[in-house]
Design goal:
It is a single chain. By secondary structure, this protein is of the alpha/beta class. It contains 11 helices and 12 strands. It has 3 domains: 81 residues, Orthogonal Bundle (Arc Repressor Mutant, subunit A), CATH 1.10.10; 95 residues, D-Maltodextrin-Binding Protein, domain 2, CATH 3.40.190; 100 residues, D-Maltodextrin-Binding Protein, domain 2 (3-Layer(aba) Sandwich). The strands form 3 sheets. Strands 3, 4, 5, 6, 7, 10, 11 and 12 form an 8-stranded mixed β-sheet that branches. Strands 1-2 form a two-stranded antiparallel sheet. Strand 1 and strand 2 form a beta hairpin. The protein is elongated.
């Protein structure tokens, strides 16, 4: 069984350094070298191009890297399934979430999950939608919560919530009106999230589909940064209601409504088929489906 060698190989691929790999794996450098040598003998290929300062993975090494991640994940899932008994859910669950979901929707789900399955150890990674899909594909998270869709045919995706977005500005924003026409929205500064964000993708869609001319774009890679910039009167934006609910109540932000127009999108959870029957993933999906969202 080459499980330990594969773990060492994956670590060396990611750290690109024998010393750092030995420290991370808590084994000696000769052991690291032996693991790699055994794998190269097993697969009859060179996995790394070595230099004094770092190592570079070869094309065949890259093939093994992607497979090794899956093998390790399957091994650990099998070990977890064997250790579990009856309906006990334990071990670690790594959840990936896009910023809007991770900061405003996920906490309530985590609270319910923790109450129902107290032995479960939770870890959350928050990135933009594109990055979360990548994390799911590479088994860096067990399940991801994203805004919109993914075209990755190797993953399973299920919608779980409809999200409503609103165009917003500061009440003191020049020319602000609670109701505007498309013509009123021409030539404004739009403050929005970065490329790869589900919110940014939706903003781009709204601008294109309505033929809006944009004076300029201010890109900020956090919802809080977008909100604060809008509050300062720097421009207008489009954000989920869950993101702006508190600021609307306090009067820091105001909604700009367009006649006969609303903006909705779908939140979905996504996971690899490998994770489909992992009990911790099943437990989390159970919580999602039972939640009043």
């Amino acid at each position: 069984m080459y499980y330990d060698a594969l773990k060492t190989f994956v670590t060396l691929t990611e750290l690109k350094n024998f010393t750092k790999t030995s420290e991370a794996r808590h084994i000696s450098q000769p052991s690291v070298s032996l693991h790699i040598k055994n794998l190269e003998k097993e697969f009859q290929t060179e996995l790394f191009i070595r230099s004094p300062k770092h190592v570079q993975i070869t094309p065949t090494g890259n093939i093994l890297y992607n497979r090794a991640k899956q093998i390790i994940s399957l091994y650990e899932k099998t070990k977890e399934d064997i250790l579990e008994h009856h309906h006990s859910v334990q071990g670690e669950l790594v959840i990936g979430a896009s910023f809007t979901i991770g900061e405003y929707i996920l906490p309530a789900l985590l609270s319910k999950l923790q109450k129902d399955f107290p032995k479960l150890e939770l870890k959350v990674i928050i990135r933009n939608t594109e990055e979360i899909v990548q994390h799911v594909r590479q088994f860096q998270v067990d399940i991801g919560l994203i805004e919109g869709q993914t075209n990755d045919k190797e993953l399973l995706i299920h919608p779980f919530m409809q999200d409503e977005l609103f165009i917003i500005s500061s009440p003191a924003y020049p020319g602000f009106k609670s109701e505007m026409t498309l013509n009123d929205l021409q030539n404004h500064i739009w403050i929005t999230r970065e490329e790869g964000s589900g919110t940014r993708e939706y903003v781009n869609h709204v601008i294109r589909s309505n033929g809006l001319k944009v004076k300029s774009l201010l890109t900020i890679s956090s919802n809080q940064g977008v909100k604060e910039s809008v509050i300062q009167g720097m421009g207008i934006s489009l954000l989920s209601h869950s993101v702006i609910e508190r600021e609307l109540k306090h009067g820091d932000l105001s909604i700009i409504r367009l006649e006969n127009q609303s903006f909705t999108r779908t939140f979905s959870y996504v996971f690899s088929p490998v994770m489909e029957h992992k009990r911790s993933v099943e437990a989390f999906i159970q919580v999602i489906r039972s939640a009043d969202l």
